[in-house]
Specification:
47% of the residues lie in helices and 19% in strands. It contains 9 helices and 5 strands. It has 202 residues and is an alpha+beta fold. The radius of gyration is 18 Å and the shape is globular. 34% of the residues are buried.
């Protein structure tokens, strides 16, 4: 319903902000990390939004980046994970680290998040990896193509970074173009993801 809201940041609370746009004040629930990143009161902000509707709850959730929004949507698709839990996770782990944990089966990383036990973490990894496998846009390892190197380890690192970027909602074409502008040799998966996200955000 709402893709984003652009307006004046009127107030901040522990778990929500109020953004005024068109003489309407929108109460937008956000992670603590996102609220901190929004800036000072009275400044102009742009907040990506998710219109959350349930029988007993209609709320607007906000994000400072498309990656955060994508992570939130993915978490909501996992059985047993609600909006409040998803926002809590966004306060504790970055989208890039989250995507990396999913593709590397790093359950231990997810259990560091308050309120996420081993069973929930395992379910998140399992369901989201299954989702990744079934998406038509998935890049196969054979498609790494121009990002291959004589170093098999480096090829694997690049492939993992590509998978993580796909989890964050980017298409094959967008990822390939970003990697063409990124020097990937001898970088870790996490560093490749971070460099690619900077380019993708341009």
């Amino acid at each position: 319903m709402f893709a984003y809201i652009k307006g004046k940041l009127v107030s901040k609370s522990n778990n929500y902000v109020v953004v005024e746009a068109g003489n309407i004040g929108y109460k937008v629930f956000m992670s603590a990390t996102a609220i901190d990143r929004l800036g000072e009161i009275e400044t102009q902000v742009k907040v990506h939004t998710y219109y959350y509707v349930r029988e007993d709850n209609i709320s607007l959730y906000g994000f400072v980046s498309q990656e955060e929004l994508r992570m939130f949507e993915l978490l909501l698709s996992v059985s047993g994970v609600g909006a409040k839990s998803a926002i809590g996770m966004l306060s504790a782990i970055t989208p890039s680290d989250f995507a990396l944990a999913i593709i590397s089966n790093d359950i231990a990383e997810l259990t560091k998040i308050q309120g996420i036990g081993a069973k929930t973490a395992a379910r998140i990894v399992l369901e989201l990896k299954d989702k990744l496998k079934t998406e038509d846009a998935i890049i196969q390892k054979s498609e790494v193509g121009g990002h291959r190197s004589e170093n098999k380890k480096n090829e694997t690192v690049v492939f993992e970074a590509i998978q993580a970027l796909q989890i964050l909602g980017y298409t094959k074409r967008e990822i390939q173009l970003a990697l063409e502008k990124t020097e990937v040799k001898n970088l870790s998966t996490q560093d490749i993801i971070k460099k690619a996200l900077v380019i993708l955000a341009e």
